[in-house]
Design a protein that fits this description.
Layout: E1 2-13, E2 19-30, H1 38-61, H2 100-113, H3 117-123, H4 134-146
Antiparallel strand pairs: 1-2
Helix pairs in contact: 2-4
Length: about 150
């Protein structure tokens, strides 16, 4: 048996000053007789690479990106109880919060422009930058780049 391992990685931007990426690896064992037929071996390798790339692209382009349970913004509330008193479920918001890069860019633009941040947070109806969504942060960046408050 011959062990083949292929992997693919990809990073895409989301248009909101953020990006997401992923990688996938596939390892299979194939018959050692493929060593004698380089065309078949190469075809098998190409097939595995194509499978890895296609799977990765499908995952990254999915609209319903699952939120991670490790996300610090999850919350436990009464609606998660299942009625029998054994409610330990966690509700993970479907909202995507601003990326670290977005927050760093906002803070840099604020320092540069000397615009107070409190009115900006008030317009977004949030108490801190960590509560901004990707869209809110994107709008704030565009506003700051344009030279002022929304």
């Amino acid at each position: 048996m011959i062990k083949l391992h292929v992997s693919a990685c990809k990073k895409i931007t989301d248009g909101n000053y953020g990006s997401r990426g992923g990688s996938v690896g596939i390892e299979v064992e194939v018959d050692s007789s493929l060593v004698g037929d380089s065309a078949k071996l190469q075809a098998q390798i190409r097939h595995l690479f194509e499978l890895a790339r296609r799977s990765l692209t499908e995952e990254l382009q999915a609209n319903n990106e699952p939120a991670s349970i490790e996300d610090s913004r999850y919350q436990l509330n009464e609606s998660t109880f299942n009625g029998n008193g054994a409610g330990h479920a966690v509700t993970v918001p479907t909202v995507r919060y601003a990326s670290e890069k977005q927050l760093a860019l906002i803070q840099g633009l604020l320092r540069k422009s000397k615009i107070p941040y409190q009115p900006l947070l008030g317009e977004c109806k949030v108490g801190s930058f960590n509560e901004l969504t990707v869209q809110q942060a994107s709008r704030m960046i565009e506003s700051l780049k344009a030279g002022g408050v929304n």
